[in-house]
Amino acid sequence: MSVVVFWIMVLCSFNSMVTVQGQEQVNSDQETIFGHTIDVMVIDSECLDEQVCHAWRPLHIIEYYGADWCEPCMDVELSLENIDTTKYAVIQHHPSPLDYSYLNYSNQRYETNFRLIFIPSIVIDGQGLLTGTKQATELNQSLVNNQTQFLGINELNITNSILNWDTSTNHTLKIWKTESTPHEFDNRNLSHLAVDYMEINHDQSQLNLTNWLDNWTGRLIFTLESNGIRMLNSLSQSPTGDMDFNSDQETITILSKTDDSPIFAIMMFIALFVTLLPALIMWKGLQSIDNDESE
Asked: How far apart are CA 219 and CA 90, in angstroms?
């Protein structure tokens, strides 16, 4: 009798897991806030020698996510060296903790904002995605096809290491500091690696960057963004060639980011059933013996 009661409890638990998971999915959908990139501006360190250094607006912003230990990333990085940086802003992110030049802000953007899983990946203007070495070869064509109009920052300059900026929006200004950084294993440099990051609110029109820019050469990339999860659109029809930089936890990562159904609860139910099946058979056997003795 106790076995029957136990199985009733298991079934009830299974039903509760499915129900709760469904409720969580509904609540999550209701509370999801989607963000997007509103404006992008750039300042190069050479400009800081001028009395007033005015920022300029690129045609596109290219965010590359890779790793020094990732062999397929090499071809993508070499192609990025040929990008016209007088027209485009490039940020090379190292989101993997296995990298010596790992940046936690890049990791947060990779996992939380863009919800990416694989490297190499390229995000264009915060909305278009190219994943894998093969898709990265379509970068130039994607830049031509992707029509994005940046607008939102009225003025942005650095005067005597003081950042001055103005916007008519209520969005956050995010600042990526990039510089040329030696590759951990190859005898080459990553020209636009993100090495630091900060953000300021829309109501803070000035910020002293003296200490932050001391003994630094590189590029500052300013992005005006609305906070939230990004909905990325694939810019390629090519098959995805990708690599999970967290391969030891690949199964957990994929489940946590793509499992929106009660599959996990069903798997748990099956596992419990298989585990308790011998006990159920033994119980049935004992019940038969009791019946024979009573006769």
From this structure: 9
Work out the average pLDDT over 204-217: 95
The predicted structure's pLDDT at residue 147: 86
In a domain, 22, yes or no: no
Query: Does residue 85 belong to any structural domain of this protein?
Result: yes
Q: What is the pLDDT of residue 247?
A: 52
CB-CB neighbours of 144 under 10 Å: 10
Contacts of 161 (CB under 8 A, 6+ apart): 48, 208, 209, 210, 213
Per-residue pLDDT reduced to its tens digit, 225-236: 998 999 999 998
Q: Are residues 131 and 150 in the same domain?
A: yes
Q: Which tokens sit at 286? A: 């004992």
Count of domains for the chain: 2
Q: Which of 133, 100, 205, 117 lies closest to 163, judged by CA?
A: 205
With H, G, I as helix, E, B as strand and everything else as coil, classify residue 100.
coil
Beta strands in 82-171 (DSSP E): 88-93, 118-119, 121-124, 128-131, 153-159, 162-167
Exposed e or buried b per residue across 201-214, where buried means at least 16 C-beta atoms within 10 angstroms of its C-beta: ebeeeebebeeebe
Any residues with CB less than 8 A from the CB of 204 and at least 6 apart, and which? none
Pair 169, 257 in one domain? no
197: domain CATH number is 3.40.30.10
Please indicate, yes or no, whether residues 60 and 121 belong to a single structural domain of this protein.
yes
Q: Is residue 8 part of a domain?
A: no
Q: Residue 262 belongs to what domain range? A: 248-280
Angle at the Cα of 231 from the Cα atoms of 167 and 25, rounded to 5 degrees? 120
The closest alpha carbon to 224, from 166, 164, 161, 147, belongs to 166
Same domain, 191 and 136: yes
Other residues' Cβ atoms within 10 Å of the Cβ of residue 129: 19
**Cα 166 to Cα 203: distance, rounded to the nearest angstrom:** 9
Q: Cα(212)–Cα(193) distance, rounded to whole angstroms?
A: 16
